[in-house]
Specification:
The protein is an all-alpha fold. The protein contains 17 helices and two strands.
Amino acid sequence: MLASLRRISFGQQVLIGLVLGVILGIVARNMGGSADNPNWLTETLTIVGSSFVSLLRTIVPALVFLAIVTSIANLKQVTGAARLAWQTLLWFAATALIAVGIGITLGLVIDPARGAQVSADAATAPESTGSWLDFLTGLIPANILGLEGSAAGDGSIGFDFNVLQILIMAIAVGIAALKVGEEAEPFLTFARSALSVVQKVLWWVIRLAPIATVGLLGNAVASYGWDAISSLGRFTGAIYLGLAIVLLVVYPVLLRLNGLSVRRFYAGAWPAIQLGFVSRSSIGTLPVTQSVAERNLGVPRSYASFAVPLGATTKMDGCAAIYPAIAAIFVAQFFGVSLGMTDYLLIAFVSVLGSAATAGVTGAVVMLTLTLSTLGLPLEGVGLLLAVDPILDMGRTATNVAGQALVPTIVARREGILDQAAYDATTHGEALTPEGSVRQPVPATA
């Protein structure tokens, strides 16, 4: 049995997990139960999926910190490190601008609020909102570990991490190590060694992805409000059409314009994209995204370990561009508010810059509140869309993750540091192997 399983590629195992997840999710849904009292199968699927995401999130702080510190040390070997950073930010902004343009166009053409079977009684403001102040406060680390504590209803204290703050601290430590010079070599040697250990643990966790896919997708089918699609059909269709255009038209065009194979890119990025779809978490998917960028797509570790974590917090074409654009138009139409050209320009402005403003409290709902407040639209409109949010979030996150892998690949190609042989060898995640060596940086040509 085990010998037969080993002959099945990792990508094929994930596909099998997707199919089993849908089947078990349908079975669990037909078994009945509720959110407060789920049946045994739904509860099992939930535990399997959430445990996997928790394991990935546990690795994220150490992976991001160690990878960025070592990457900054390695960047001194790469010509034009500052140019790499600027090129990354420019491509983040350019692709976000294209995505929000698509979102606004679809919102105007499809008229997403027409025929919506939702009552105004469902209009409620969310507990978490986004603001430009969040961006500034999110840049300042609360502590050396980047941890944030919150009190639960039972009196216990829970801790979460802020990736943006870890990013800032790691960049500061990495630059400081370069400035110190030779005396910092023992520290950098330790950081590189620790990173290798963390990456080995990461591989063990990633190997659980096919099983986790069963739990994550099965729980989604069993628990989320699929029936709510009928009440917001035009809105849901507009969102997924926009995501499909970005994922299947815009990204392939950009790849072709930069001389890259579309099939190879999606084959290499597939493990991260599918995990983003079923987990609905860019941060939880971050270790896998970084791994496929380095091993499958040939992006040098020294660059990928900076660009991918940055993208996981600020590069969200699904959550921060397509969704808020169409949702804002929906809310305006529902409440009978006319939007002018200035309002559409504001939507584009918020989509390009606003994802960074919500990085400390990431989420599409928070991003939508930032857009609505900027336009002066009622925040209560968010409550109208919550019924289908889990369904939309799967597609949004998959698009986010694809973009987070796309930009570093394109920038590496344009700057002459992409390992083209690794990129061309990609076959459906098979480069994601425990024996596969992480690519070392290739000096850029002048």
